[in-house]
């Protein structure tokens, strides 16, 4: 059989010694270049802050604050991601907000828009076709239209009820094309306005936490000791006259690492830990068989009340002079009602 014509010649298999290592494929970059880029981005952001029209910003913030309806955000591409994020931020601050996709809006989603609402349109150039098509439809619904743009005299700004100019010196991209500085400016602007709204509406820490119940922020502000403690029937309790050796099963079986010493009315007398057991055994040897829990227990343990915040319980455990792994929970009459452990707090996500 004849050889293949030159145009169909297949490449020869690459021999092992011809392989290119991962590190050889990497383009070089040094610390000086990286520092220069960060400084340039900082300079571009400083330009934004120094040239932002605060009167426009104040008017925009007051418009959002006084809106009786929902604040919608819309954008395309990277600006769309920012718009979605800003909407989520406002929602987390108990402000009615939603993202409106400009494409989906023209296929039914604009039905969510009403004359009570504000529609904020994000576009660097102000010439985004999808937003320009959305404007007359949104205006027909009676919504108040605001554009956030970075190019002066753009088409979108001319069509909206209000425009806020977001000053952009240039993109960090060497071609001045990739939207990396403009989107950073949009995010910083929107998030700062969001915090202004949060303060103006006097949102409390508890209200904020209620919007984040599954996260660590919410748990630290919502969970109380009584929500995470072990209850009475789970406690490793004993009386002070009980022999230490008779209480070893109770000490080790409840997963608390301690015994809670109580009187006949369930008032807390003290605590005896597995560490106390080791120290007593080392100091007393066989004498431990005759010792009672009351003789060796700590009669001044750290305690906490059921209505204290769980995060404060963790702080109390970690406080000087030395950390502890648990806190007995007592009521106003010193009656033992539970125990909170460091393991339990961590397991609860605190």
From TrEMBL:
MF (Gene Ontology): carbohydrate derivative binding; isomerase activity
ATP-binding as a keyword of this entry, yes or no, is no
The record's region (Disordered) falls at 1-23
Which SUPFAM superfamilies does the record match to this protein?
SIS domain (SSF53697)
Concerning InterPro entries, the annotation shows: CBS_dom (IPR000644), CBS_dom_sf (IPR046342), KdsD/KpsF-type (IPR004800), SIS_dom (IPR001347), SIS_dom_sf (IPR046348), SIS_Kpsf (IPR035474)
- What are the top taxonomic ranks of the organism? Eukaryota, Viridiplantae, Streptophyta, Embryophyta, Tracheophyta
PANTHER family noted in UniProt: ARABINOSE 5-PHOSPHATE ISOMERASE-RELATED, PTHR47476
Protein name per its UniProtKB record: Arabinose 5-phosphate isomerase
Site (Catalytically relevant) found at 78, 130, 171, 212
């Amino acid at each position: 059989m004849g050889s293949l014509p030159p145009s169909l010649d297949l490449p020869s298999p690459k021999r092992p010694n011809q392989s290119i290592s991962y590190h050889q494929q990497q383009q070089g970059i040094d610390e000086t270049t990286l520092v220069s880029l960060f400084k340039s981005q900082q300079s571009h952001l400083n330009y934004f802050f120094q040239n932002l029209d605060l009167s426009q910003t104040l008017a925009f913030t007051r418009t959002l604050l006084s809106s009786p309806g929902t604040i919608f955000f819309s954008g395309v591409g990277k600006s769309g991601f920012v718009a979605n994020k800003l909407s989520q931020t406002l929602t987390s601050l108990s402000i009615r907000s939603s993202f409106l996709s400009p494409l989906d809006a023209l296929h039914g989603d604009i039905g969510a828009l009403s004359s009570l609402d504000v529609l904020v349109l994000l576009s660097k150039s102000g010439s985004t076709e999808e937003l320009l098509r959305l404007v007359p439809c949104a205006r027909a619904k009676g919504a108040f239209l605001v554009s956030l743009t970075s190019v002066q005299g753009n088409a979108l700004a001319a069509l909206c009820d209000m425009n806020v100019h977001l000053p952009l010196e240039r993109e960090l991209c060497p071609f001045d094309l990739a939207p990396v500085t403009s989107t950073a400016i949009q995010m910083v602007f929107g998030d700062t306005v969001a915090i202004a709204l949060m303060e103006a509406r006097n949102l409390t820490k508890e209200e904020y936490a209620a919007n984040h119940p599954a996260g660590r922020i919410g748990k630290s502000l919502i969970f109380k000791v009584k929500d995470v403690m072990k209850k009475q029937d789970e406690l490793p309790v004993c009386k002070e006259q009980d022999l230490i050796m008779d209480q070893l099963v109770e000490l080790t079986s409840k997963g608390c690492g301690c015994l809670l010493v109580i009187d006949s009315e369930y008032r807390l007398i003290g605590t005896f830990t597995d560490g106390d057991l080791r120290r007593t055994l080392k100091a007393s040897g066989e004498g431990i068989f005759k010792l009672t829990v009351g003789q060796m227990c700590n009669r001044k343990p750290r305690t906490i009340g059921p209505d204290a915040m769980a995060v404060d319980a963790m702080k109390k455990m970690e406080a000087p002079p030395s950390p502890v792994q648990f806190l007995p929970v007592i009521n106003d009459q010193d009656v033992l009602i539970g125990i909170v452990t460091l393991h339990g707090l961590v397991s609860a996500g605190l």
